Amino acid sequence: MAPPSKLRELIRAIRATRVAADERAVISKECALIRTDFKKEDDEFRARNVAKLLYIHMLGYPAHFGQLECLKLVASNRFSDKRIGYLGVNMLLDERTDVHILVTNSLKNDMNHSNQHVVGLALATLGNICSQEMARDLASEVEKLLKSSNSYIRKKAALCAVRIIQKVPELMEIFVPCTRSLLSERNHGVLITAVALITEMCAQSPETLTHFRRLVATLVRTLKHLVMSGFAPEHDVSGITDPFLQVKIIRLLRVLGRGDAEASDAMNDILAQVATNTETAKNVGNSILYETVLAIMDIQAESGLRVLAVNILGKFLVNNDKNIRYIALNTLLKTVGSDNAAVQRHRNTVVDCLKDPDISIRRRALELTFALINGSNIRGLVRELLAFLESSGQEFKSYLVAGICLAAEKYAPSKRWHIDTVISVLQNGGNQVKDHVITGFVQLISSSPDFHAYTVQRLYKALRDDIIQQPLVQIGLWTIGEYADLLVAGAVEEEEPVVVSDGDVVDLLLIVLKSPHSSQATREYALMALVKLTARLSPAGDTTIRAKQILHKFASHIEVELQQRAAEFSALFNHENIRPALLERMPPMEPRTPADEQYSEGFDEGASAAAASHQVHQAAAATAELVLLLLLLLLRRRGVV
Known about the structure:
- This protein is about 70% helix and about 0% strand.
- Strands 1-2 form a two-stranded antiparallel sheet.
């Protein structure tokens, strides 16, 4: 009978298919032939069949029927069979299958094999499919291999011990004594696996962490040798000696130095040496520097060393690689709370990152810019943020508006600057301005009597130029309704007043009411402002007559809310004795506390949360209107209206 086809022939046949149906047909036929060969117990071609089956498994087709055949190959005396068998065990078995128990005995036998490569296969397989039962059964064998004279076996055993500790942390004790001796190895492969093993032990047990803190001097000595050693061709990567080992050692030093002043003091000098001597021309050096920065920030380092770490991140910000710029921004964002002064030195570079074409870098730069704002730099940073708001996409506007308003509320140098800033935000923020921003600005205006005239004039000019931005229009309508008398009087000293007549104000409100861009809420604001004008402006003019005419038209509006408001406002004119009192200027609102508002909105908001926020802040913004409507209802019940 002809021998089974080779793996390369199967690959060629599968690649020759044109459609998925043809591929499935080829694989189904091959799987049938493989099953037939397995039933014949043909040892000669078992490895070839398993290799083909593994390729079929890689394509996503079921290959579980080959599990026992893999175990038979593992039990074979030929290395070529064992290699395919262990590969199949790694791919087709895991700790959740029952078959993996059968491989434990084979692993134990191969760990005692005279061939180092067979031992390596067994250790690698145990590290991949190890379960708790296998870990308990074979931990002692792995511990013996850690003491082997063969560096290749010790390296494999250390990696296997990492997996065993992850599965059964209580087995850690048997590995601690032999692990300490591994740090004196000259073989870099053994060293890097020993450092990985110690790092895992320290993460699993605080007692072990305390025990290994005594080895800080050894680790520092090893790292210093790597940094100061000359060119070593077997370990050189872009001119740096074994950067992988350096990163592992620095990461372990970070774990050992966290929360311990003595250990931190012992590693300060070597971390400074690494930070100053490592080349930044290649990514290899940047990876070491980044790990060094993380270690310095995590341990109890000297203040000068922390400034050096922040300066390294500042250099990363001007790197051409956008990934390096991103991690620099991310790390600075975590550092700004503890080393604000050092991060402030790189403020201009951070602001420049707002112009980066990569959206993720712009997002991180924006978050860091907000974190850098304080009382001394708010004018410059807010100016940059307003420029960014004007040119940014919709994905940033909501976050920008909330952040700028919060920063202005906390650090505003003056109320006039605060008012100007919020108006600029309203002009550039579009309809992304949330209701809590409107509420906060209303509170600011009402509590700033010295700037009522200035604010109403600024907002009148803004509405005259643009009535598309609904939040801006709503704020402007509320302000005009409250302080229209100051607008008409031109009582502004700081700025050249604008000549505005009573008719101009009513015309502006009428334009807003007729605009197709106006929402129902905006028209409600406009009707309220219109009825307030009759109490603010001179009774000698025709404001009251025009207001009655407009309200009469809206009394039959298709929107029930607008219709009801217009009808009730019209009824007020039949009771001149109570109308002036109802339309009096609102008293200053109570200042808000930080807990009252939520400015820290993410970039992706839930619809339900946004709807809830809208209802709450809409109610707050319309306090005067609600009070007025309640009074009207009370009068209606008493038969007055």
